[in-house]
Amino acid sequence: MSLAIAARLARRELRGGLKGFRIFLACLALGVAAIAGVGSVRAAIEAGLRDQGAVLLGGDAEAQFTYRFATEEERAWLDEISTAVSEVTDFRSMAVTGEGESSERALTQVKSVDDAYPLLGEMVLDPPMPLSDALDGAEGLPGAVMAPLLANRLGLAPGDTFRLGDAQFHLSAIIEREPDDAGGGFDFGPRTLMRTSALEGSGLLEPGTLFETEYRVLLPEGTDLDALDAEARELWRDSGIRWRDARNGAPGTARFVERLAAFLVLVGLSGLAVGGVGVSSAVRSYLARKTSVIATLRTLGAERRVIFLTYFLQIGALAALGIVLGLILGAAVPLAFAPMISAALPVPTLFGLHPGPLAEAAIYGVLTALLFTLWPLARTEEVRAATLFRDALGTARALPATRFVLWTIALLALLIGVAMLFSGDARLTLWTAGGILGSLLILVGAAILVLRLARAATPAARGKPALRWALSSIGGPREESVSVVLSLGLGLAVLAAIGQIDGNLRAAISRDLPEIAPSYFFVDIQKDQMDRFLEIVEAEDSVERIESAPMLRGVVTEINGVDATEVAGDHWVIRGDRGITYAAAPPEDTRVVAGEWWPEDYSGPPQVSFAREEADEIGLEIGDEITVNILGRDITATITSFREVDFSTAGIGFVMLFDPNSVSGAPHTFISTVYAHPEDEAQVLRAVGEALPNVTAIGVRDAIDRVSELLEGIAEAVRWGAAATLVTGFLVLIGAAAAGVGARTYEAAILKTVGAARGRILASFALRAGLLGGAAGLVAILAGILGGWAVSTFLMETSYAVIWPSALGIVAGGVLATLLAGLAFAWAPLAARPAQVLRARE
């Protein structure tokens, strides 16, 4: 019965239109739209990867080997299960033009193929020609095609020649589109492609050199991919084969997109929290204007439950409208900008209406609306009719009935749980939730402190009317000041935290790392070349330090006899192949923190020293056994010690270090890092390249630039998410300013009546806005610095320093935003006639 009455009353209240709820709707719609938009783009990428997975992979499935080609038995099995097979090798090398002092060198990611490549998709070249014709070459030289970036860097054009190792190639064309270029993940150098047969005699595919071989296959129609996956793993468990199919055509890209989207959704949730403050403020302001209506209902005998349900249903209907508007906006914007987004992304996209992300955004919107409206609605139950007639809704006690407090806690827990489920990253979600809640608590405390300070400072402002009026208004009984500090402060805090994280990441990459990083990594140094290599490098006066180590690569397959993925999950150490080395004695600067090192003449069962931090993450202990497949051979070693390994220096660092007796007999090469003066690095590269053309040099600064480019893209996406949060905060600010127009109009009328000039009144309004904006900005700096420190220290594990230009810009932004909003709503109160205003209040 009470529900039916409440529904009828709510329907009548809604006849008044959306007046007073425009900011409510805008905040809710914008927050939901941000989450829905990010989710829609993520879903479009995932759909594109699924749809084009086979093209990105280069076939329906792929078998991958490290350091070797498939054996006759393995190749026979691949031929048996497929309708077509293409063999591709992938490695890094140095592309060289010219001779002597005039020579130019650049790192390139080389792909060598057979005549069956590509099985799927099409290689687009400039000038247009079939790939087979391009790879035939000219003038007695084998042909090759090259990425435009590499060709420009070396000053090459079609028809020119260049060298890889000891082999000379004719550049036939420039690559415009490579069908499987998004499936391989992160590359240090631009692409060069030629036939594998053309590399004979180049010295680049010698035993032990760093290369991978991929066998892409086309499968018969109706092949059971799960059964084939199980068969491959069972047949070739001990051969080091890595098998994947088109359902996971670009795993690195998919993983990156998923994690970035999860992070952006959490940034969107921060925006929704800011909007929630606006929603709560709008509900509170609306109920304050409905004092006489609520009083009338109470005097007519309406129960508290009926009044609560009346406004709960009314605001629920408006919240549903806001959520629907947000979903429409979140679905429409990605569709409208689909061509632009697709062109900017290096992966295929399939835009459309994706129900999953929209449902997630709707759930977030419903929970946020409930969380932020329940408390102000509940306060109506605690106010008596007589108090309502005095227009004093604000005198209700701060805390509502216990059941509403419990419901609020339950809704908050549910929202965090849903965010953990949808984001797939519980740790990041909890950090985000903790940061938002901590910021809100700091901001509430700051708002209360600002009010008290304003009240205390008001008497001291005698002789300065504009300042006195501003302080008196801030410290008054209205809640406008709290709303401004909360909404603007939280929006600025999110932006400040992102600014601090972004700045510290940039500092760690572009400033700290180059000071301690080597100039070059030299890889693929053959055993019989090490003496010559050291002789060349040590002869250069600019070389300050050289570090060398034997280098193998292997795949961790088992831990204590159990499949490694069952023990370590998706940990990066077991994802793909890892670098491995060996040593009789602990290398220089090695610190053993647990266990014991083997004797220098050790010849017993295999032993391995593991990196301590990675061992802790996986859950390894001294005495555990780890099985590593190297060149198709399983080696099971006992972990006898843990070492501290600092990967942040960009020097030589290995997770696994074996005793020499275990692995030194396997074909392998050496790796070396060379530290030289920056101005002489080119000379070192030229000297090594001329004497040992098969040796590949990886410039650490080039790698840093590639990582910086990637981080710049991430930072740009996050900044857009933060901007949406700030826009929401500004909307809440506008709502608070609009809600206070009536009070400022009355205040201006009183001041005019006692003789105050308009300029002084305007100065009072400006001071009020500036003080509140400054307070919000200062609190945002504190919250942003704390949030940035927590994320940088505990999640990203980088050093942290306050980025003051970014922090001070936040304060300036807070002051400017409140000034603009305050002054925009100051003209109406100033223009109002005092007689009309005061007569209306009688």
TrEMBL record:
<feature type="domain" description="ABC3 transporter permease C-terminal">
    <location>
        <begin position="267"/>
        <end position="379"/>
    </location>
</feature>
<feature type="domain" description="ABC3 transporter permease C-terminal">
    <location>
        <begin position="723"/>
        <end position="828"/>
    </location>
</feature>
<dbReference type="InterPro" id="IPR038766">
    <property type="entry name" value="Membrane_comp_ABC_pdt"/>
</dbReference>
<feature type="transmembrane region" description="Helical">
    <location>
        <begin position="361"/>
        <end position="378"/>
    </location>
</feature>
<keyword id="KW-0812">Transmembrane</keyword>
<feature type="transmembrane region" description="Helical">
    <location>
        <begin position="260"/>
        <end position="287"/>
    </location>
</feature>
<feature type="transmembrane region" description="Helical">
    <location>
        <begin position="765"/>
        <end position="791"/>
    </location>
</feature>
<feature type="transmembrane region" description="Helical">
    <location>
        <begin position="720"/>
        <end position="744"/>
    </location>
</feature>
<feature type="transmembrane region" description="Helical">
    <location>
        <begin position="482"/>
        <end position="501"/>
    </location>
</feature>
<dbReference type="Pfam" id="PF02687">
    <property type="entry name" value="FtsX"/>
</dbReference>
<feature type="transmembrane region" description="Helical">
    <location>
        <begin position="308"/>
        <end position="341"/>
    </location>
</feature>
<keyword id="KW-0472">Membrane</keyword>
<feature type="transmembrane region" description="Helical">
    <location>
        <begin position="803"/>
        <end position="832"/>
    </location>
</feature>
<dbReference type="InterPro" id="IPR003838">
    <property type="entry name" value="ABC3_permease_C"/>
</dbReference>
<keyword id="KW-1003">Cell membrane</keyword>
<feature type="transmembrane region" description="Helical">
    <location>
        <begin position="428"/>
        <end position="454"/>
    </location>
</feature>
<protein>
    <submittedName>
        <fullName>ABC transporter permease</fullName>
    </submittedName>
</protein>
<keyword id="KW-1133">Transmembrane helix</keyword>
<feature type="transmembrane region" description="Helical">
    <location>
        <begin position="404"/>
        <end position="422"/>
    </location>
</feature>
